[in-house]
Amino acid sequence: MTEILVLYYSRHGATAAMARQVARGVESVAGARARLRTVPEVSPVCAAVEEEIPAEGPPYATLDDLKACAGLALGSPTRFGNMAAPLKHFIDQTSPLWLEGALIGKPAGVFTSTASLHGGQETTLLGMMLPLLHHGMLLVGLPYSETALLTTRTGGTPYGPSHFAGPDDALPLSEEERTLCRALGRRIAEVARRLDAGRE
Please, which residues bridge with residue 162 across strands? Predict the structure, then answer.
């Protein structure tokens, strides 16, 4: 099986809902499966100590999850136009994988959720791409053949899926947002499957 890591941080549940839709897209591709993983909170004053297994949701990601995956979907809420600190903290620890070139040539895509419609979705997505480029990953976006990009009145960008959660983080994913999340998962899985077939 071609395994795609769907790695995300979610504070209020919107990014987690997107991650589940991305995973559905991955698993719509024959021979592909999704591995959902999250990251723990960070502390503003010292290193936070969390249980190895969270109380709910998927397990916390390890560097081995990244090393073993055939592709990556990376998701974060937007924080002032950037990815959230807990996800950045995890990414900052991936230097050992960079040193051995463990992620070179693997497809990757990004997704985000914001409380405001113009709250930095695109800058967050572009910023999340930067460490993936440093790792030599192959970025997968959303082409305009995904017609939900043309009809959405909420989130959705060619750089990756986005979600408008509203100021109270209460808005569910729109139909277009769900469609675009699944499209990203499907595209990453399809590219990873083709790359795997080329190595056989």
Answer: 112
- Provide the β-strand partners of residue 82: 79
Range of the domain at 187: 2-199
Report, as ranges of residue numbers, the positions in the chain whose pLDDT lies below 50.
none
% residues pLDDT > 90 (the chain) = 85
- Per residue in 59-114, pLDDT tens? 999 999 999 999 999 999 999 999 999 999 999 999 999 999 999 999 999 999 99
Any idea what the CATH number is for the domain that residue 136 is in?
A: 3.40.50.360
Count of domains forming the chain = 1
The two tokens of residue 118 are 């113009």
